[in-house]
Give the backbone structure.
Amino acid sequence: MEDSNANAKRKRTLDIIVDSPNNLDLDSYIANYKGHTKVDRLLFIAKRCPPLQIDAYKLALQELRDSSLDHNKYLNTANKLNEVLTSQGYPSYPVDNAWVETTQKRAKAALERLEVELKNFKNNLIKESIRMGHNDLGDHYYNCGNPTNALKCFSRTRDYCTTSKHVIEMCLNVIKVSIELGNFSHVHSYVIKAESTPDIQPVVQAKLKVAAALAHLDSNKYKQAANLFLETSFEISHPQNNYSEVISPNDIAVYGGLCALASFDRKQLKKQVIDNTEFKQFLELEPHIRELIYGFYNSKYSIVLDILERWKNDYLLDLHLHNHVESLYDNIRKKALVQYFSPFLTVDMNKMAQSFGTTVQKLERELAKLITENHIQARIDSHKKILCAKQQDHRSGIFQKSLKMGDEYEQSTNAMLLRMNLLKMNLIVQTNQKGEGSRRH
Amino acid sequence: MPIQQVGTVDELIEALLNHSDDRAEFIVKHIFPILRQLPQQFFLQNTADNRDPLERLDPTLYTVPYAYFLVARCNVERPEVANLLTYILEFLRSFDPTHIRLVPEKFLQVAQGLCRIASLYGNNIISIKPLTHALQKYSPSANHLTNLHQFFIKECLLTKCYRQALPILDNDITEIETTGTGISYIDHLLYHYYGAMVYIGLKNYTRALNFLVLVISAPAIVTSQVQAEAYKKFSLVSLLLHGKIIPLPKYTAPVVVRSIKNQCQAYQDYASAFESLNVKRLRNEFNKCSEAFRKDGNFGLVKQTLDAIYRRKIQQLTQTYLTLSLVDIADAIGLEGRDAPKIAERYILQMIESREIFATISHSDQGGMVSFHDDPDMYNTSNTILKLEEQIAKATKVSDRVIQTDRLIGCSREYLVKSKNIASGGVMPGGSHMDDQEFFAGGGGFDNFDPDDGGRFF
């Protein structure tokens, strides 16, 4: 994980340390995932959250040992765990050296075997076998914790795909590895590729939607992300076809809910979220998100802000969500302020500050910013602390506009006439006109 | 009967008086050749009976020879100031404009002579008024540019008679005629540049900006230094007026845009600092470039922009607030120090006076509370009607002129020849087909002009 380029990008939020997660139960949280994302998420939490560090490392080690061949990461993680343990005065964790050694050997042997096989397949020129060979090799690299090579192998299968099923398999593999690498532009292009194949299964469709949504989330396009999360079919949560090597259904509820709140207007929220039976099933998994959305829709902003505040630390510990928390929260708050004011002509800022759990001064500043950015058509009475809707005087506006237009028309037409006559008389700024060109002022 | 060779002033006067034909062709054909070959020295002589030859010539009938005499006398080292002044003033009062347009350069020299004499006389300002009248008489119409225009405006600038320049400046120049006015491109550039400076002096920034845009967007294949200087002033005036550098017309010559980028970097940096409305950043930029500003002679304007940033910020506050205390205003617009609210109050008072904002200040509580109002002009008075009618009249006038120009083009030989070629499927001299639109473009830059525009406006 250290060398993945996703980290380089996320470094700017690295300094955020969460002291106490509010609602996070590590065991049940992580049970939703499997494979690499489970390890990555655990390591991420370990790095961000000192109180959960030891447990997270231990769980990660177990996962690595049980279901991967990634001995390097195992050793790294064990070292880190031991550092923490010694610094806190605990006995150090016994590293399973025997497993490391055998795994090392096994991995090497498997790699050699697979490479030889692939060579043979290539000599025999059987397309399907070559594809399988590349695929197996990719899987092996992936298992050994070498996503870059795995990506290469998976991409190579592209030339040997014969059926649409193969194409989809290839795409899903590439997407999975690319998400792990944080290479979301890759994710985009392969999602499009996969979606253009015929006979696509609903489950695959759902997976692709989630992957694309993650990509949009990564590039701060919350609206697109929300749309895709909301369109995701609930089938993805069935045990036999889940996508837990990337994302859990709970995550879909959280990501989708927050993105929708941050980017949708009230009408969209009702139509696409609250009336969305498919997404309702996701929301059942995370009741607080449901409460959040209903609270927002019903204009109970203190509830909304309360829930947001309570869950903030958890979201900061989420692998995909953490560096969007601030801007999502910001957007939701802005939306709430705008929506709060929308039915009124005047609003008492004291009351408003109360509903939003802030002081009048801070609220005033926030509102001033919203007004300058043209989100709210209103003006602040700073003396009486009242927010007043702007009275639009269209009649005066028209007068002003037409007078201005008349002026502009006269001026530009005159300029045009002058220009035309200048050109007609060939009075062009140039160097050799009547010896005056050198006469510079 | 052609005029014979003349050897003395008396002979010249005799010849002139005998041929009092005031048709232009006659002057060109018969008088010019004589005057041209006479040396300057000749015009300084007196008649045989030791009288001043100008006494015998009527400036209205013999405008051209009169001008020759005046120019020669103005150019000597020690002219007879008082005497000459009377003659020049007499000449400027009663010259014949159609005659003098035959020798525009002489007329300019007379004007220059007047200014020289006036300065020798010790009173520069006396030249301004006669020149104004002379110029109005001299130019074929108020919308024509002449070779005297830029000289006159420059004199006004030098003598600080800004207001006296307005009767000339307030007419937009639209007509350009090289014959009879003796102008070159530099006259157009300088006239509008000096004009803009006059308007800046009078704080009429809207007109100043228009003039500067005319200079910058003048058709060009190389960049004149005047244009670069105009851009510098343009950027500052634009900041004062709009808070940002407004875009230049689309038809601005690319070469000018390029050299502006190279030459006026300091101004562009300064403008972007202004646009950010960050007082600290603007001050930094100001300190960095103040030497350059001073060198360009734009220091005064730049200092005004330092002031204007506060005004702009206050203006922004009026969009956001209905009431705000002076302390908060001072804080919001970035004023510092103990006196900040007082300074803020001064700004607001000035802005209320100049009708930039509409507000009232109450000192009853909290050390000063400002209430911002909307523009009280509801556009429901007879004033509005008057204003509208005036505008409509102006617009109609302009569109009439456009229609007239359109007709003239329609009748012009070039147009007819070219459209005939197109109709017969012939190939243009350039080798390619040219449609009407391109033809109207006439050298580029005229493509967004639509002759029907005038009709559509109202």
About this structure: Chain A touches chain B through 49 residues (CB under 8 Å).
